[in-house]
Fold each of these.
Amino acid sequence: MGFVTLTVSRPDQGEFAWSVAIAPEVARDEAAAGQIREVVAGAETGESVQLWIEQAGGRDDAFAAELGFQPYRDLWRMQRPLPAPRADIATRAFVPGADEEAFLAVNNRAFHWHPEQGGMTAAGLAERMAEGWFDAEGFRLHERDGRLAGFCWTKVHPDESPPGGEIYAIAVDPDYHGQGLGKPMTLAGLDHLADEGLDMGFLYVESDNDPAVATYRRLGFDHQSTNRAYRHLVK
């Protein structure tokens, strides 16, 4: 049916015991509702269940509310055509076997608040690097004073129409905040995607992250769609 149910058992992935995602093409009908009810029924008292509705529309809040879910998080997809203006800082490719420790330190300092990206372990990083989409050249690092100051990790989506390039994860070490690195790090990632022949770049950002949204708008990104997360506490 295209409806995906994910079992979440990793405690470092946030508060939820179970998570359900509804793809844009899946009807919000009784069949989908029934599958969601089955997931909720499988949770224990006191556990939370998460519902993600991709490209949420006008009636999705009502659909979720009928199942006992309340919205709590909006993840915006923002995108822009490529190429973008070229970055004015030097970056280099990630080197597997050499850069993992420095990356994890910066990532976990920058994303200490983030339910998915924060708290990444060496094993978790290795899992992502083992994915077929991983490309070390698209994992751009910027160093200052002999240490990692920021990174822009990109991901190519050849199955999109047209094929798109994602700013998968981007961060600046908190020690280098306020030095204007966010914009050029983003452009460095877009440079790589454009050099790969892609015509469109996109990213996902928390809708309430006002500084990041403002930066991306200044770089020519527009809000294209919203993935909305809902939670249900089993009583």
Note: Residues 74 and 148 are 30 Å apart (CA to CA).
Amino acid sequence: MERKETILVVDDDPEIREIVRILLESDGYLPIEAQDGHAALSALSDSVDLVILDIMMEGMSGYQVCSKIRERSNVPILFLTAKSKDSDLTLGFSVGADDYLAKPFSYAELLARVKGLLRRYKTYKGKDTRNERAPLEHAGLVVYQDRNEVRQDGRELNLTEKEYQLLKLMLRYRGKLFSAQNLYESIWDEPFLYSSNNTVMVHIRRLREKIEADPQEPAIIKTVWGKGYRIE
């Protein structure tokens, strides 16, 4: 009999936990519940395939829990949160979250996010791949995180530090849509201003000139007009 995928649901609202538990059970998953951060860390084990984590909790916040989980595991983490400003999301990604879903959420969207995270985890990382310094590979590109080196089809690329950080961030979270503000606050670690958008655009353009076969028709770093950038 095939093992059910185990999902740890962390929320201090018992009604939310119950709703998510019933939804996951109806779709064939095995949910386990934790009412706060300490309980979540105690419940975390190698058998957990995904964590659904609330941000606003008393005591240890979801950000703190996420950071603690990342010290032990590379398990996918989905933030379920009422906080959906760009600055909140940037902070979430910076501590290791893989995706977020704003409250109130639709049941169909929650299940879609869960399935997508589990599928990408199995395809690109593997259940036992916990080394966050392992090489990131895509479309002939290899980012060696342990030595800040990028190669394309075996040839070393001469990237600036900001270009390297942009590429690494988007490759680590493939499929994630990053706004200019997400990227700026994550890479430059400064508050986003109106002029910051141009800074991001210039760096993306220069990065494309180094990694794209045709920078005018980019195949690696895609632009989602009016929203941002992503590597699919």
Note: The mean pLDDT is 86.
Amino acid sequence: MTGLILCTGEPAKTPYYILGLGMNIYSSEELCFYLCENSYILDRDIMDVKLCQWIERELGLRKLGAKLGEMLENEKELSEFVTTILREIHYCTEEEIESIRVILEENASLGFAQKRKARGDSLLQTNKLSLAIDEYHYILQGMKPEEDPQLYSSILHNAATAYSRLFLFEKAGEYYRRAYDTDHNEESYRQYLATMRIVKEQAAYMNTLVLKGVDQDIAENLENIMNEVMSQQPDTEYAKDLEKIIQLKTAGKVNEFYDTIEQVLSAWKSDYRKGMMNI
């Protein structure tokens, strides 16, 4: 969902207070926006008789309010409750509603931290990297490693991956190392070594391998992977843009070099803003 949303209903004189967010909502569109944006972390607490009454009395949607009330009495699933609201208010397309239904059903049995991680992972997969990092940090602040070492380690690992995609390799290495120390996952350790290989000089990197007692087979395998990756042709538009800029600089085409930089940065900013709007 992008762009402006036309609100067709009258705002409520008395808002509905959403305890989980500590905020008031005043319209059916605000309610739908909340449900869509928080689909990964919704639980049955949203299925409240007070919400049904507010929809019926304050928004004037009597049929919808009564229908939701019946769903509470019949102990319907959260996914059916939420999608009924979205469909009746015509806030989303059927494709978007179906996507939200799948998320709610898949996350129904998950705990709070797992739901927040699922949201962070979705942001990571769609390259909303800063938002993904914020989500992972939020979970880590309210969770202790001993509560669920595997989950905690996975959150650290994915946060490290987000940092690495932002080229913050030292920060990524720190988080990969913490992930490994928490759950001794070999993939986290390999990624940690890879980031060290990028940020350290060759001599310092080799010294790190010696001090850490890294298995020689692991180090050699990592070196082979790094060499293979570095020898590959760029396969993304961003990498191709950078390659073009480097070629212009090498060729000494100064004016074209700076013009291309300006064009590329403008395009990247546009892509970033579009990504932020699609949250």
Note: The beta strands are 16-18, 23-25.
